[in-house]
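subagent[fold] <- orchestrator: predict structure for attached chain, return tokens only, no commentary.
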Amino acid sequence: MIYLRSLDRKDALPKGDAYPLSTSVLQGLQSLAFDSSVTLLCGDNGSGKTTLLELLAAGIGATPIGENGTHARKMSAFRAAAKGYRYAFNKRPRSSFYFTAEDFSRYLDDRQRMLREARDELDALEEAYEGRSAYARKLASQPHARALNEMSGQYGRELLQASHGEGFLSFFAGRLHRGGLYLLDEPEGALSYENQLALLALIDQAVAADGQVIMATHSPVLAAYPGAQVLELREGAIEPIAYERLSSVQFLKHFLLHHQGILARTGIVGVPRPGSGDGEE
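subagent[fold] -> orchestrator:
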């Protein structure tokens, strides 16, 4: 399903130093069409992938995972910039969220704090209500017990007991809803290649459930999703590109085939091996 079909500039954007409109990717952005249920934004660091995703998130009102003061101020700037664009929908999604690795780490911290506070409140109530009826204790503890039960049942596995990568996969699986629009910013950061493939399977589930995914990534694994719209950002331009022509794909292929020569030409010596004659007598 394609919910968001295009992004179009309303009028000429003002020049100047105002962030984020001053970035090259937004200065050059006139119109962008989304023609697949999965769109991949690829490009080098600093090419504008995150900037574009944040503009989309602000324009469609996507819910971030976590939010603090710094994040709120940044998104305020993007909401102002988003007013300079039109967001055309075929149909409004039932829900949408915006994922970044930084937000996920903050979400885990907040979740740990909320669990700890709920348990502390239950312990304090047990002490305060000592000697009173079981019914009175039950009434007083209900809000905190309900919060613990809801958080415990939210995911198939408690996120705080999993590795960072496993936690993200459990989180994303728990957030998949029919008719969702998902904006993902470089989710591969905490994932092994095998878990990146597992994420692709979850993305496929989202698409099968009438979902749309727009994802910024450096990963050749994630960029290989069949039928995806692949866009490369470079020097302020956004251009469609074949998967095989992506810089990240070409570099990885070349490196795997010629890594010894590349390392030698780069001057990377590595750790001396025992018996190589480089050690001290």
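orchestrator: received. Logging for downstream: Helices lie at 24-27, 49-60, 69-82, 101-128, 134-152, 164-175, 193-208, 247-266. The mean pLDDT is 81.
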